[in-house]
Amino acid sequence: MKILMDELMIKRSLKRISHEIIEKNKGVENVILVGIKTRGEAIAKRLQENIKEIEGVDVPCISIDFSYWRDDVMDGVHNIEEIAIDFTDKIVILTDDVLYRGRTVRAAMDGIMHYGRAKMIELAVLVDRGHRELPIKADFVGKNIPTSEKEVIKVKFREFDNEDDKVLII
């Protein structure tokens, strides 16, 4: 195992992404942060905190399990979550820890459209490791980490793993 990003590097990357979101969208009016469960949730919450610190605005932030819309999970036990936010005419920033093949993001986009026709969907990821199977590209990337197919990227967050934040390659 090798640490590719430590806690400070993750914090700096998410701070930079927060500034990029604000700049690209000319502020945060009509922006909603949507964390792809599970680790995308931690990223969305941290971006929300950063944006509040920078802009003084508390942007809406939720997390959703998009398993229902996966085309590669056919066990039939996933349900559509009830949420209290309408995405119609909003700028939705999807957040996830690692962008790999693109299938999770595709499912998330289908899910977002189920809840309302967003004005725009943007993608923020902590790590982009390549190997896409679908034409999906992140708008905001913490770090590009080219990997082999055999390597595994693990993201650890204190909220879920009871240890310091870090990105590992195994």
Notes on the protein architecture:
This protein is α/β, with parallel strands linked by helices. Helix content is 31%, strand content 26%. The protein has helices spanning 7-24, 39-55, 103-115, 158-161; strands at 2-5, 31-36, 61-64, 91-99, 120-128, 140-144, 153-156, 166-169. The protein has a 5-stranded parallel beta sheet with strand order 3-2-4-5-6, sandwiched between helices. The N and C termini lie close together (5 Å). The model has no long low-confidence stretch (mean pLDDT 94).
Alpha plus pi helix count: 4
Strand order of the largest sheet: 3-2-4-5-6
Q: Identify the overall geometry.
A: globular
Distance between the termini: 5 Å
Weakly predicted, low-confidence segments = none
Strand content range: 25-35%
Average residue-wise pLDDT: 94
Helix content: 25-40%
Rg, nearest Å:
15 Å
Largest sheet: 5 strands, parallel
Number of strands: 8
Order of helices and strands: EHEHEEHEEEHE
Global structural class: alpha/beta
List the SSEs and their pairings.
Blueprint: E1 2-5, H1 7-24, E2 31-36, H2 39-55, E3 61-64, E4 91-99, H3 103-115, E5 120-128, E6 140-144, E7 153-156, H4 158-161, E8 166-169
Parallel strand pairs: 2-3, 2-4, 4-5, 5-6
Antiparallel strand pairs: 1-8, 7-8
